[in-house]
Amino acid sequence: MSDEGCVVTMREARSAWPRRLFMALAGSLAGLALMPQASAHPFGEPQTVRLQAAGAVVTLTWTAASDDIVALGMAAGALPGRRTLVFDTAPNGKPKPVGRTEAEMIVGSASVRKYFAEHLVVRQDGRACRSRVFLAELVDTGARVTFRCPKPVTDVDVEVTMLTDVHEAYRTVAIAPDATPNRALYTARQSVHGFSFDSDAVSADSGGIVGTLGKATVAIGVVAVATLAASAAWTAARTRLGRR
Known about the structure:
The chain is of the alpha+beta class. Helices cover about 35% and strands about 25% of the residues. A hairpin with a 2-residue loop joins strand 7 and strand 8. The longest helix has about 35 residues. The N and C termini lie far apart (about 100 Å).
């Protein structure tokens, strides 16, 4: 019979069977060790949500530790309860999952997108803003959720309940550089915080660009006037000194 492209005799196969069983059990135990445990991971580093606003759009970027991302995938039903592994009997062989990786299953899952839409909510004047979920960069730089509100953003309420349905000890730190407050802590008991965004930092999409260009033009004009004045003064001084 053949195994991994090598011919194996019946005696070798019988002698290899205990080794295969041991490797299978070891792999199963290793897999269990890597599975998220609700009693442990919630007490690690908190999740983070970064808030930004531009015009009528609020963007939330969610990041978390890899084990919390796996917990998210399981909570959303994107990951199976069991995985089939292929074991290589080579001395340095490692078990390999059959099919897509956990990251591929989570990123491509409609249930995960639905989970984000339900557990990250932005409201303006009591009305929920329409959301869109982007998971392509979830593992690398985080999931991005955009919220389009009825009017330009100033004051909004942001609700975050990520993973508190898995364990109430999960926490999320919100970071909002252009808002007041610029930081907030979400817990199972405190799931909503209000944010007031700086009106200078939040402007209409086109208006913001025009405004920025306008300020830049004024700044350049001031610098040009100052440069001409300095040049005239320096020329006058050189003339008084009899230099050219």
